[in-house]
Amino acid sequence: MGGRRIGHWLVIVLLVLNCLALFGIVNVWFDEKEAPDPAQSRETPEIPVAPMLRSKQSLNEFRVVATKNLFSQDRTGPDLGPDATQQCQGSLEGKILLGTMIIGNQRVALIGHSSTKKKTKDDPVDTLRLGEQWEGYKVMEITNDAVVFQGRDGKTTLNFPE
């Protein structure tokens, strides 16, 4: 009889342990309270704001750096004042609109130089933004298929080639 008693107690203890295990699994599985995420509890460092990589000034504003002798004490060379681009207005003859990029408020036009020679990857391409001065013209408008310039003689439009 002693063996039966131990058997009953063993069954009861196993039954209680199984119930506790089942209760623990159900409690963990269906508990709506989530454990706090350790990654969220730590303070994150502030991300610095990166400065603009390119200024809004046109490259013609820096032409004096290339034309005057940097290694001379008196910096002799041709004088390019602020009105130099207005005085030496070029022609759009031989210029070709290669493409436009419009991303949000940013509008950029790619202008190439057309010629009869075969095109190579080293051919110069000018990148123009709205309001920039370029060869005596001011970029007034950039659309999907044209660029409008304001020059000494009025407005001029450069369209995609046909």
From TrEMBL:
Transmembrane segments: 6-30
Name this protein carries in UniProt: Type II secretion system protein GspC N-terminal domain-containing protein
Keywords: Membrane, Transmembrane, Transmembrane helix
Domain of life assignment: Bacteria
